[in-house]
Amino acid sequence: MAKELKNYINGKWVVAENSGYLDVENPSTGETLGKVPLSTEAEAGRAVAAAKAAFKGWRDTPVAERAEYMYKMLAIMKENEEELSRTLTSEMGKSIPDARAEMKRTFQNIEAACSAPMLQQGYKMLGCARNIDGEVINLPIGVFVAISPFNFPAMTPFWFIPFAIVTGNTFILKPSELVPMTADLSAHLIEKIGLPAGVFNLVHGDKVAGNSFIENPDVAGVSFVGKSATCVEIAAKCAAHKKRYQAMGSAKNHLVVMPDYVQMDELIRNMSTSCFGCAGQRCMASSAIVAVGDEMYEKVSTRFVEDAKNFITANPLDPKYANEPLLTGPVITAQAKDFIHKMIETGVKEGATLALDGRGIEVPGCEKGHFIGPTVFTDVKPGMEIHKTEIFGPVVVILKVDTLDEAIKIINEHQYSNACSIYTQNGYYARKFKLEVEPGMVGINVGIPAPVPFLPFGGSKYSMICDIKMQGQEAFRFYTHDRVVIERYWTED
Ligand code: NAD
Fold it and tell me: What residue numbers bound the domain in which 437 lies?
């Protein structure tokens, strides 16, 4: 019998008041890993009440003491790195090396939060006017909620947990209902560090729980990561319910290859690991290559397709592939696989050339898995559905342009604006690119320009429906109110 997950509220594991349970599926095998409760509004409300009650005591705990809990959190998570990696692979399907890399990023977020005694400092301006001083103090705000997506079951929750808590807020995580096992394990580890009851809470569920947090007047803010369409809904609701929010959305990240680039082996491998790792289900995955000039287009198209054939489509938990970096695991659900198949059919109907077709791939022993092998379209034109849509699978489109200006135009006219990269050794091209493209994260000779947690992370336009990023100093800004105090003392003489 699969384990029924519980919620963690006010320092206790509780059976969720729920409207039913969903099976948590291993996307490689179809095996049921557990059952996740769909928590009700009343259940979500109990978590908010607990977090609200814990706020005052936690807010008044000195920042260095709060940071000490982060060091304990880091230590216990690191001790359990391998179990966390395997848990997230079993429910999400990424390779074990990818899962370990995700855990490293998770740890770095906790490390960054340990800087709170430095980064939560305000500042003071003596003598703003005669006898008047001005002071900015960075105060915790109250109860924060994070609603996370399926594709990074460990890292996305930890974009928020340590920063929200270390700054003196109390916190509730609502993980994706598709991948709740990593959050369950993480919460069991966090329980062991002995935070006061109610400071950290875990509530499982779907959009019913997500929405009820947004509508709850005792929630001060919401951090959301998921599809752009969901971001728009969340942003509108947060505004209506007077909450601060972050909302990071979907992506179609372009890689531009300039004609001067000569290190073809490194180039092709760098691009293919960006495109096919995690079965194309990273928000920083590239899924569109733009080659500048006929010669580079021919070279890139031919060699990229050849390199894609080196990827093994397999169950990432098969011991044979435990350390295999070139592994394309399953996509998350049967519905996701159907959608990707439909997009491939659309590409063919639109007149693009299907240079490599990953449909119909069979993984022995994993007949119930949701596998699609690397798939590549060439002769793609901007505006085709396969170029406009975030396919979120191992499907890559290759486009040809004549100039860097045209490549920049394609990137800037795309609805999504998360990240993009250029491959060139020419400083002029690189500088022009970084100044003129609109996405929030830019790479130069880097296939996945994902900022480390000491730097801000976030896109722009329809990929980021808010104006404050995650990670780094931005995280400290989001989770604190910078109250400005203007003070005057009369002279006594
Ligand atoms: P999703 O939008 O379907 O769901 C994300 C979370 O929101 C889940 O926890 C879900 O239960 C909840 N949810 C869904 N609808 C809701 C609603 N109406 N109200 C409240 N909560 C709701 O996203 P997903 O499919 O899990 O994640 C994949 C998407 O996330 C992709 O588009 C990917 O690009 C994006 N993503 C973006 C970033 C980034 O940094 N920009 C990072 C990771 C993933």
Answer: 253-444
Q: Give the model confidence (pLDDT) of 377-412 as tens digits.
A: 999 999 999 999 999 999 999 999 999 999 999 999
Q: Check whether residue 209 and residue 271 sit in a common domain.
A: no
Amino acid at 399: L
Which of 219, 225, 252 has most ligand 1 atoms within 8 Å of its beta carbon, as the pocket-test mutant? Answer: 225
Answer whether 99's CB lies under 8 Å from 81's CB.
no
State pTM to two decimals: 0.97
Over its C-alpha atoms, the chain yields an Rg (Å, rounded) of 24
**Residue 493: inside a domain:** no
Whether 128 is a known active-site residue: answer no
Q: Is 153 in the pocket of ligand 1 (CB under 6 A)?
A: no
453 within domain boundaries: no
**Residue 5: which region, alpha, beta or left (left: phi > 0; alpha: psi -120 to 50)?**
beta
Length of the chain: 493
Token pair listed for 287: 């899924």
Span 66-110, pLDDT tens digits = 999 999 999 999 999 999 999 999 999 999 999 999 999 999 999
Q: In angstroms, what is the span from residue 335 Cα to ligand 1's centroid? A: 15
